[in-house]
Known about the structure:
The complex is a heterodimer. By secondary structure, chain A is mostly helical. Chain A contains 14 helices and five strands. Chain A has helices at about 90, 110-120, 130-135, 150-160, 190-200, 200-215, 230-260, 275-315, 320-340, 350-365, 385-400, 405-420, 455, 460-465, and strands spanning about 25, 30-35, 40, 435-440, 445. In chain A, the strands form two sheets. Chain A has a three-stranded antiparallel sheet, with no helix packed on it. The longest helix of chain A is centred in the middle third of the chain and has 39 residues, at about 275-315. Chain A is globular and about 75 Å long. Chain A starts with about 20 loop residues before the first strand and ends with a helix. Chain B is about 30% helix and about 25% strand. In chain B, a hairpin with a 2-residue loop joins β5 (about 100-105) and β6. The longest helix of chain B has 11 residues, at about 40-50. Chain B is elongated. In chain B, about 30% of the residues are buried. The chains are: A mainly alpha, B alpha+beta. At the A-B interface, α9, α10, α11, α12 and β4 of A face α1, β1, β2, β5 and β6 of B.
Amino acid sequence: MNYSDPENPRDCPAVARMDAQLKWGWSEEEKGYNVTSFGGQTIRCRPDPKKTDPVTGRTIPPDLLPTHRYPSTATPGFYLGKPPVKTEDDVVYRPNLPGFDLAGVPGAILSQRDSELLISFLTAPYIRLPLVLAFFASDDRVHKLQSPKLKGILDSVLFEPGRYLRLTATGVIPAMVPTQHPSLLASSHGLLANELHKAPDNVLRPLAALLTGALALDTGAVCDVGGTDFNTGVDIILYVTRLAARVDNYVNFLVDHHHKRHRCVDVPLRDLALSEGTLAALEHGLAALRETMQGELAELLEEYLMRLDKETAGHPGDEKLIDRNSRLAADLHAHRLLLLRNVHQEELTPDTAKVLIGSFVYLTTRHTWNKAARKAGRLLVPETEIYELLTVVRRRLITWPLLKKQRTLDRVLQTALQVSSSSISTGRWTLRWTPRWTQRNGHQYLLEERVPLHFSGWLSPDLASR
Amino acid sequence: MSSSTTGSLRTSAAVLDAANRWSVIGGHHSVGRFAVASTRTVASVDQAAVASNDKTKDKDARADGGLKTIAADGGGSDDEAVEEVADTGQLGVEMDLQIGQMTLRSKHLSALESKVANHCDVKLIFGDATMQASLLEKAEHRTRYKLASTVAARLTCLRRS
């Protein structure tokens, strides 16, 4: 990893590997963690606010201080440039606001009114989460999420933790509006967890509306004619799928932690105890979310896989098409996995197990990892998220009692085998081939030489017949 | 069962699911590993054919060249426990649920490893197409892959011509 400023590559000289090790400690005085490294130097997770000018020795004014290397896209002025935007007034008096234009799409994605509304929300970090979520979920604005910049803003608003609430400030309520102590407008476990803890309906309702709106964007096609990637509608559907699955992770954690079902975290968490009303709202919202995700949405993803499979089967010699559809199928399989990350072991069914195992094996056999660009085959779901998902679900799967029953085991693994060995297959509707095993030499079990065509697409002939 | 010349069988999922008998691979280091370790015996098919005097089934059995074949409607019951097989290294198909990996006759089939697939020479020859490969041999300074795709087959044809 490169820690240096891109404009000043010698800012951080080469250091021995062990010198870069972070040493974590607890500061009783400051009631916070103290992290040291690089020979005892103080490490900051943001630019030094007291940085001095190396020539004059004076403190640099806040407006001229260097920013984060990767500043949040939810910063109000991120797409506006200078002067900095701090309050709503700074937005109102701007002559032009960004329209988040998209190459190939005529006109602005957001009107000036909507842009003003959105950027105004961003100026209030503590309360902007439900406002921004409701903004995209209302007035048919879900299709605005075709803009990668707007997706980035929504992701930042939802999943960036925001200002950390110090231990000493727990339970302290600001007395004035606006507060003289902005450090109180913070949360101990991130803004999303805070919002779900304080007012879950404000998150879960707009999210459900967003999901419903996204599903309505299905046009019946996975790609445009001659396209190399998903069409706009499917792209938004998959984005909202990822968004909903990640919020599901938060809600699931809170509910599991409350019921002491979480495998790793079983200690009380600061300022995160759920009341009966909050718990009921979370459970109800989660059930509604899961119903859509594992019902209509999962079926839609299966249907997309089915369409890709049908298209590939119709053009067996078209290698470009097979390559494209295999890449897209890998994305769809990754999204199917996201939908099932939080299924508890007692909720597992043979159908969900088939999807989990089949999609995993499909990715390990068909997807090339660590591709740098989307065009080269990088997944829409970060690969680290898939590894994390595998870590979470594999113990549930392996210790699943039904996997010790012959009939269930045969059904689940046979389907997974077929999904992973076909070019696109979904597992439910495209079970088209029964591999035939023959016994030879007493203990060897070999694949019969007659290999179906769609299987031989990825097995070289001599390997398949061996 | 082999009603299609293309091998594309459009039968129900229930029939296909009961095709292979999967077993647990035994041993402390094999938790989460499963393998196809046996097939349904032909006897059940033949007996059924004789009992019902069904010539079609008999014909199907003979068409399989005398090899042991699968009884489509056979299979374990919900009460039947899964058998355990030893890790002999000669298992047919193996599924490792710990890492989501399928192995066919001790050969791990996967998309070509990233560092190989992203190599400039590989990109120059094959482009950005996703390629499947089988790992044949791994030594300290050498890894041998066999490309298993139509790309590789096409390249072989080009070389021959």
